[in-house]
Specification:
alpha/beta; Rossmann fold; two-stranded antiparallel ribbon; binds zinc ion
């Protein structure tokens, strides 16, 4: 099915061309973005206004590979359609988007943003500012990996497998989490603000990462940052490895593994089990988060070329579970 062809405004083009090498500092955040892209893990970037969340989120487009690529079977290589098109789908709908455009609608079934992101990335910048119905449609598509579009006389179900990239500040004034600018919000206003995104949507993020403002010394650093091209090559290698491991299944990446796959491919030794247990208690994580941590640890191990999961992989995956305090 062909995607809708639209003219891309200049501002969007600039966001499209954002690269990792253009972003100074943020090493921890860029690493998390690489893990997310490699494993197909949904990622939420949180932090004060002006910390660079939106820039990072847009730059992720430069390291994404299509969710399904280079199927190698019986020694023959299928065409890599993502590479042929030279584009991974990437959609970044505005906060004001009506639900009908998010889902799709109409007599001739016009596809919405959720379908158009299928096989690529969907960026929701400032997640709390989307309409509740839009967030609900997003939650449904994450649950079902599909989206139902109603027209006058029929319902059509479209596939909706995408990597969700979202950003969020922590309070209405935007300064919470900033070391230099004090937050002017009352505690109840912060609480109300943080509750604007439903818990059952937040639980779909395998990685929740704090984005801290880059210190001046880093902004002035003349050393070259690693390029998006280099990062993307590692992402692609992990995707390819994962597809081989999951051959014969209907899933494409580590994030989509079922509990049975997790038990098979994410086995832990006794020391690592102990670390996992204490980490879960400390962060007050749910059973769902347990599987998320293991899947993310699998991706981290794959990026490092490791066969088995170690304590270091699990410890890093636990770092990305910042949401425990809200769920
Ligand atoms: Zn505030």
């Amino acid at each position: 099915m062909l995607q809708q062809q639209t003219l891309i405004p200049e501002e969007e083009r600039q966001k499209e061309s954002l690269k990792f090498e253009d972003i100074k500092g943020h090493e921890h955040e860029k690493r998390a973005a690489e893990v997310a892209a490699a494993g197909g893990h949904n990622i939420l970037l949180i932090g004060p206004a002006g910390s660079g969340k939106t820039t990072l989120a847009h730059a992720m487009q430069s390291i994404l590979t299509p969710l399904w690529i280079t199927e190698e079977t019986s020694g023959t290589t299928q065409p890599d359609f993502g590479e042929l098109c030279n584009r991974t789908p990437f959609r970044a709908p505005q906060n004001s988007i009506p639900c009908s455009q998010m889902i799709g609608e109409g007599k001739h079934i016009r596809q919405g943003e959720i379908f158009l992101a299928n096989g690529g990335g969907l960026l929701m910048d400032d997640l709390r500012n989307y309409k509740p119905r839009v967030l609900e449609s997003l939650r449904q598509s994450l649950t079902q990996r599909s989206i139902s579009v109603n027209s006058r006389d029929r319902t059509v179900v479209f596939p909706a497998c995408f990597l969700l990239i979202a950003t969020m500040q922590l309070c209405p004034c935007g300064n919470l989490g900033d070391s230099f600018r004090p937050c002017a919000c009352k505690p109840e206003a912060v609480h109300k603000y943080q509750r604007r995104v439903p818990r059952d949507l937040l639980q779909y993020f395998d990685l929740v990462v704090e984005v801290c403002p880059v210190p001046f010394s880093k902004l002035n650093d003349e050393r070259e940052c690693e390029s998006s091209e280099t990062v993307r090559a590692r992402v692609k290698a992990v995707r390819s490895l994962t597809r081989k491991r999951l051959r014969g299944k209907t899933i494409n990446c580590n994030a989509e593994m079922e509990p049975g796959d997790v038990r098979k491919f994410c086995a832990l030794d006794e020391t690592t089990k102990e670390l996992m247990k204490s980490g879960m208690q400390h962060l007050m994580l749910t059973a769902g988060a347990y599987f998320q941590v293991l899947k993310v640890a699998r991706t981290i191990a794959d990026l490092g070329g490791a066969e088995s999961l170690t304590a270091a992989h699990v410890a890093e995956a636990l770092q990305y579970q910042k949401k425990g305090e809200w769920l």
